[in-house]
Amino acid sequence: MSAQQRRTLTYGQHNVLQTISVTPLARQDGYWVIYIHGGAWRDPTVTSASFDATESILRKSSDLPIAGYASISYRLSAHPNHPQDPKSTPSDEFRDAKHPDHIRDVEAALTLLQNTYGFGSRYILVGHSCGATLAFQTVMGAVAGHREQSFTGDANEPGAGAETVFSSPGSLPPRLTTHPTAIVGVAGIYDMRKLRDTHREISAYREFIEGAFGTDEKLWDAVSPAQVVGSRGVEGGWKVGRLAVLAHSRDDELVDEAQLDSMRESLRGWEETEAQVLVDDELASKHRRVCGLPLSGAHDEIWSNGKELARAIIFAFRELQDMGLASR
Ligand SMILES: N[C@@H](CC(=O)c1ccccc1NC=O)C(=O)O
After folding, report:
1. Does 129 qualify as catalytic in the annotation?
2. Which protein residue's CA is at the shortest distance from atom 6 of ligand 1?
3. What's the complex ipTM?
4. Radius of gyration of the CA atoms of the chain, in A
5. What is the pLDDT of residues 242-294, one digit of tens each?
6. 10 Å Cβ neighbour count for 324?
7. Does any domain span residue 100?
8. d(CA 208, ligand 1 centre) in Å
């Protein structure tokens, strides 16, 4: 019997999807593993529960330094195959989210987790498909709202300055969310226009991107992690980041590997820049890593049986251990 128990946290009142499934563990020296599911921003059959199989596999590999698991549900856009009657559907069950609803929900969830468990940057953000898009959007300078830039204290201290970041009178600002040490992107969508173009003959691609972001392709570019360079992109936003793992299955029938190639290319400047380190330690290494990881299995198989998603997460821990950033 395990003493750990899973609980559901609610981070918003607008929609029943604004919840996080959380399993806190006792390990103090560990990292939180935080998952963002896929489903093209709209599939109501894919929720935070899609991490269950992976979590149970990881819980059996008990040697990993894991402080807890969290899997985030977030508001979804409308899906043509799952129509809802606006008259009879309770408003908190209605799925009509539009950007930035999805990313704001993910940020609100991360903020609640930070305020509850105070893990600072000691977490690995894992995203599958559009969940990988969302994971990298949380660290993009222009999408994440410049929170770290506005912050003058030690951005790496868990919870530090959460109350004192913004002193301007008037509306209450969002609280600080410290960025992750590592991101694991699995079957990620990183360039939306390119995804639409590569799959031009299948209208569903254009439809789900428009469903989430509307028809303005300039917005698609502005929120595509592989399209935005410099201070507005990952390079400018993800100062404390150390490791990016880009995983893709050769058997993936829905998201092609050119997405990963674009993301890898766009991370080159980030990888070559020194990371901001937690402590004032002259000797601490500041280097960064970007790793590609080949997986096997169909797009949704990766998470549905959980084996390959678990393997990608274990891979990230081995890299962090190798970099001296995680205990063994
Ligand atoms: N099951 C989804 C399709 C889907 O998830 C998807 C399809 C093509 C490329 C990426 C996808 N998901 C990414 O989050 C749907 O019903 O719309």
Report:
1. yes
2. 40
3. 0.99
4. 19
5. 999 999 999 999 999 999 999 999 999 999 999 988 666 777 789 999 999 99
6. 9
7. yes
8. 8
Q: How far is the CA of 203 from the centre of ligand 1 (A)?
A: 12
SS (H, E, C) 82-134: CCCCCCCCCHHHCCCCCCCHHHHHHHHHHHHHHHHHCCCCCEEEEEECHHHHH
User: Which CATH number covers residue 116?
Assistant: 3.40.50.1820
Catalytic residue among 50, 129, 262, 266: 129
Question: What's residue 167's pLDDT?
Answer: 33
Pocket of ligand 1 (CB under 6 A): 38-40, 42-43, 129-130, 189, 208, 254-255
- Tokens 């198989």 correspond to what residue? 301
With the most atoms of ligand 1 within 8 angstroms of its CB, the residue from 41, 50, 129 to mutate is: 129
**Is 82 within a domain?**
yes
Distance between CA 166 and CA 162 in Å, rounded?
A: 9
**How far does residue 60's CA lie from ligand 1's centre (Å)?**
29
Rounded CA separation 291/308 (Å): 16
Question: Which domain range does residue 108 map to?
Answer: 7-152+180-277+291-322
25 occurs within a structural domain: yes
Residue 5: count other Cβ atoms within 10 Å of its Cβ: 8
Can the peptide bond before residue 100 be classed as cis, meaning omega within 30 degrees of 0?
Answer: yes
Distance 99 CA to ligand 1 centre (A): 17
In a domain, 285, yes or no: no
The pLDDT tens digits for 163-191 are 333 333 334 344 457 999 999 999 999 99
pLDDT at 226 over 60: yes
pTM of structure: 0.91
Domain count of the fold of the chain: 1
CB 263 within 8 A of CB 224: no
Q: Ligand 1: which residue has its CA nearest to atom 15?
A: 43
Counting from 1 in the atom list of ligand 1, the atom nearest the Cα of 133 is 14
